[in-house]
Specification:
Spore Coat Polysaccharide Biosynthesis Protein SpsA, Chain A, alpha/beta
């Protein structure tokens, strides 16, 4: 499984702190947001149980349709060579349409780290990639060509561009690079291993004001997402979805159709809503917390939140 980190924002609300640099590389209590998230995801992949087929309950798998190619959006593309040694860089040996079986232990292992960023921050991420531990999976960085908010692509078009440039195959683990979590990612990846399908994190949020600022999902008893709305004024459910997703082949195949009708979309939750209307996405109900670093106030409060989470 490849891990794609969406890091192409310009963090305009935090410019006084970032001084024009990337928000995910801001340090919180001595470590960057991106390093903390990446360590959590890699640690979860390493800790997720290795199950035999009989230990997993049977569920729906992926449809096996191929990964899309958004050929119209390759201008300005710039990719770094892979950082890391000892691994093949050909997409891991699985075709774009390959679907893991129930209990496939490889399905939750991260064998390459992919980052999509903008032209302004590309060099910063290339430098960051060299600071990671030598036993990390190889890293590749993609420049989406944007130089500011006026010509930024948005998260969904960055996702499509990365799929075109990196050819990661499916499943693809996708996360935004600017959140802190108090959550066991091994549970999330084990859920996928046992029942391969497009899967997003979901946490119960009872505060109405917070739900209005989030992507809100309505679920059936089996966890299938029936409806998903980005920042709804009148939320119809209590499950909010932080930006961590596993997209199966059938979901990635919907990217061109979605962008054809919503080319200027930004939040990836809008793509999740599209998948929900087609019955293609489920939720993993997480027991834990998420902290969004989006303002100077939340950045200042983050160290205390981390201290409580490790108390």
């Amino acid at each position: 499984m490849k891990l794609l980190l969406l890091c192409a924002g310009f963090a305009t609300r935090l410019e006084a702190i970032t001084h024009g640099g990337p928000k995910p590389l801001l340090e919180i209590a001595g470590r960057s947001l991106l390093d903390r998230l990446l360590d959590d995801l890699l640690g979860g992949a390493a800790a997720a149980p290795r199950r035999d087929r009989d230990e997993c309950s049977a569920g729906e798998g992926c449809s096996g349709r191929g990964t899309p190619r958004d050929k119209a959006r390759t201008a300005g593309e710039r990719a770094s060579p892979s950082v890391g040694e000892g691994r093949e860089q050909d997409g891991g040996g699985k075709g774009a349409g390959a679907s893991p079986g129930v209990g496939d232990v490889r399905a939750g292992e991260i064998d390459e780290i992919l980052v999509v960023t903008n032209a302004r921050h590309f060099a910063a991420y290339e430098a960051w990639a060299t600071t990671r531990p030598v036993d990390d999976p190889p890293r590749r960085i993609l420049d989406d060509g944007a130089t500011g908010n006026a010509n930024r692509l948005g998260a969904v078009r960055d996702l499509a561009l990365a799929v075109e440039a990196f050819r990661p195959g499916a499943p693809l683990l996708v996360a935004a690079g600017d959140n802190l979590f108090r959550f066991d990612f091994a549970e999330f990846l084990d859920d996928y291993r046992c029942r391969p399908r497009s899967l997003v994190l979901a946490m119960r949020e009872r505060d109405l004001a917070r739900r209005r600022r989030s992507g809100v999902a309505r679920l059936d008893d089996e966890g299938r997402i029936l409806e998903f709305e980005e920042k709804p004024p009148h939320p119809r459910g209590e499950w909010v979805c932080p930006p961590v997703y596993i997209f199966a082949a059938d979901a990635l195949a919907e990217l061109p159709a979605f962008l054809n009708v919503a080319p200027d979309t930004d939040a990836p939750g809008n793509f999740v809503g599209w998948l929900a209307r087609r019955g293609l996405v489920w939720a993993h109900r997480m027991a834990g917390e998420r902290f969004d670093v989006g303002t100077p106030e939340s950045w200042a409060a983050a160290p205390a939140w981390l201290a409580r989470s490790h108390a």
